[in-house]
Structures are given as structure tokens and as C-alpha cells.
Design a protein that fits this description.
With about 190 residues, chain A is mainly α. Chain A is built from eight helices and no strands. Chain B is elongated and about 55 Å long. Chain B starts with a helix and ends with a helix. Classes of the chains: A mainly alpha (about 190), B mainly alpha (about 160). At the A-B interface, helix 3, helix 4 and helix 7 of A face helix 3, helix 4 and helix 7 of B.
């Protein structure tokens, strides 16, 4: 895996992004804006499920109207997020918070899968009797909680407390970030 | 002269207990920053939904008044989180902010944005249902908040 990441970091576009003075900040600003669109609209979708907003709208109407915007935010958030990763691949790959974030995204993704599967199957029924099962409300709250943790761990990637270049680290940290003695002491973009 | 006085105030703020305390901690700044980001996302969601409704891009079957009534509480909450977390972030690096162009752009746009939402956008939605006017205030509000968020992120790069 590390070889692939190293290869990635030596592709011309990766070097270009890394060495460009303005591209990285621009992409990161765009990433933040898409986070706001994704999480902010998701908040309203989830709060509709818990019955806190837009009660005049049925669940299916809410999905049809707000969810596309959430998905647009998600897609562009992923594209800009990938570019941020691609600009400094080794540092991200060996970054503890990046790995935590990745893990959390998988959990949040599973929750989203369950959420949408149930919703597509049952939302017509909820439209009629307006009773939403509590497991759906829990899933909506779990979604907000998990994505909040994703955002928090994402913000922490910028900090180098647990980077390979900062030794000594406890063994389990080095294990978690796949750090070996030969790991490059890669100079990342610290603190941004 | 005036700017020197301002700079003196900035130094006092930087040396304040809260500023000092955050600088002395490794974790505090990033943690506050994370919650600042969450506040931004909450505010962003309410802005996007309300302003896109004004532009006629979504929820067209609902009145703008109704969409505003459902989003304004979350706008207030997001703004509160942003201010409560933003002030300590500022105190911990007040001098850096003073010399940062991005910071001043952000603060000026933030003030314009807050005043615009509370004193222009929201009252106009209540009073006037002209869709052209709605489009205009939707574009203005959305653009201001995009600049606030983006320039805020740039403070970290300066």
C-alpha cells in the first residue's frame, strides 16, 4: 500500500498541487463550503425525521427536495477531499486522524445505507399515518453524530502530533499509522 | 494614531486570560476550531435552504415565509456556536488576525451578513412576496456568507 501511496505522491499533478502556493488553500476553502452544504442540508433531512422541522412536508417530499442538494454537497466534498489527500498522500496515509476519519466515514456510510434502504421502502407508509419508527429517528441522530465526528477528525488531520516524522511515539500509535523505522520523514503541510 | 490604539487593544486581547490559556494548550485550539466548523455547517445549511428557496431552486410549493420559519432557529443556533467558539479562537491569535487581510474581510462580511439577514432578508420575506426581489436578496445573502466562510478558512493560511 505504501508503495502505491508513494507512487501517487510522485505523479506530476500531486507534486503540482503540493508545490502550488494557492491551489491547496482554494481547494480547502471549497471543501469547507461543501461540508457546510452537505452537513447543513443533512441536518434538516435528519431533523425532519425526528420531527423538529418542516412538519408540513411529508418525508418523501423532504427527500425529493432537499436530499439532491445534500448529495451534490457530498459529491463535491468528496472530489475536493480527494484532491486534498492527493496533494500530500504520504502524510495523509500515515496520519492518525485521517485513518480515524476514514473509519468513521465507513460507519456513517453503513448507517446511511440502512437509513435510505428503510426510507425508500417505508416512507410512503409514513406519509399516510405520519408515525415514524423510533429506529429511524435513532438512525437520523446517529447520522448527525457520526458526520460531526467525521468533520472534527477531518479538522484534526492538519495537526502533526502523531505524524511519523515526530518520534518517539508510543508503539501502538506507530502501529496505527503504519509507521516503520524507514518511513520517510515527510515534511507535510503542518498546521493548515 | 487610531490604528495604533486599536493595535494596543489587540495586544490586550491577545494577552487576556482566555487567549493565554488556549495558546498554552496543544488541543484546545483545534477542538474549538472543530466546533467552529460544525457551527458553520449548521448556519450554512439554514442559509442554503432559505436562500435557495428565495432563488426558486427548491421547496417551491412551500411559501418563503414557511421556509424561513423552519430555518431561522437553526441560523440563530449556528451563529451562536460560531460566535461562542470564534471569540476564543480570535483571542488566542489576535495579533495575527489584526495583520491578516482575510480576517478583516471575514469580519466585515460577517457584520454585513448578520445585519442583512436580520434587518433586510427576514423582514422582506415577511412583507413582500415579489419573486424578483426574493431572488435578489437570495443571491446577496448567499454570496455574502460564501465569502464569510471562505475568507475565514484563509485566516489559517496567512
Amino acid at each position: 500500500m505504501l508503495e502505491f501511496i508513494e507512487w501517487l505522491s510522485l505523479t506530476p499533478w500531486s507534486i503540482g498541487l503540493r508545490e502550488s502556493l494557492y491551489m491547496y488553500p482554494w481547494i480547502e476553502s471549497a471543501h469547507v463550503l461543501f461540508i457546510a452544504i452537505f452537513f447543513g442540508t443533512l441536518l434538516f433531512v435528519d431533523l425532519r425525521l425526528t420531527g423538529h422541522v418542516f412538519q408540513e412536508l411529508s418525508i418523501s417530499q423532504m427527500n425529493k427536495r432537499i436530499l439532491p442538494l445534500t448529495i451534490i454537497g457530498f459529491v463535491f466534498m468528496c472530489i475536493t477531499g480527494f484532491l486534498l489527500f492527493y496533494a500530500v498522500p504520504i502524510r495523509n496515509y500515515q496520519n492518525l486522524f485521517f485513518r480515524i476519519k476514514f473509519f468513521l466515514i465507513i460507519i456513517a456510510g453503513l448507517n446511511a445505507y440502512y437509513f435510505h434502504k428503510t426510507m425508500n421502502k417505508e416512507s410512503k407508509k409514513w406519509d399516510k399515518d405520519s408515525h415514524i419508527p423510533s429506529r429511524m429517528k435513532q438512525s437520523a441522530l446517529a447520522s448527525l453524530f457520526l458526520w460531526s465526528l467525521v468533520i472534527i477528525s477531518g479538522r484534526m488531520i492538519a495537526y502533526n502530533w502523531f505524524d511519523c516524522g515526530r518520534q518517539p511515539q508510543p508503539d501502538f500509535i506507530n502501529f496505527l499509522i503504519s509507521c516503520t523505522a524507514e518511513s520517510d520523514l515527510y515534511e507535510g503541510l503542518d498546521g493548515i | 494614531m487610531e490604528s495604533n490604539e486599536l493595535l494596543e487593544v489587540i495586544y490586550v486581547l491577545e494577552d487576556s486570560f482566555i487567549g493565554e490559556y488556549i495558546r498554552g494548550s496543544l488541543w484546545l485550539f483545534p477542538v474549538i476550531q472543530s466546533f467552529h466548523l460544525l457551527g458553520l455547517a449548521i448556519l450554512g445549511g439554514s442559509i442554503v435552504i432559505c436562500d435557495f428557496r428565495l432563488l426558486g431552486l427548491l421547496l417551491r410549493s412551500e411559501s418563503a415565509i414557511y421556509v424561513l420559519s423552519q430555518t431561522r432557529r437553526w441560523f440563530n443556533f449556528g451563529l451562536l456556536v460560531l460566535i461562542v467558539t470564534g471569540i476564543p479562537l480570535f483571542l488566542s491569535e489576535a495579533v495575527k488576525c489584526y495583520y491578516s487581510r482575510a480576517f478583516w474581510i471575514k469580519i466585515i462580511c460577517l457584520i454585513i451578513g448578520v445585519l442583512f439577514v436580520y434587518f433586510v432578508r427576514n423582514p422582506l420575506i415577511q412583507r413582500n412576496q415579489n419573486s424578483l426581489l426574493h431572488k435578489l436578496i437570495g443571491v446577496l445573502s448567499f454570496s455574502i456568507w460564501v465569502v464569510v466562510a471562505a475568507s475565514g478558512r484563509w485566516i489559517g493560511f496567512s
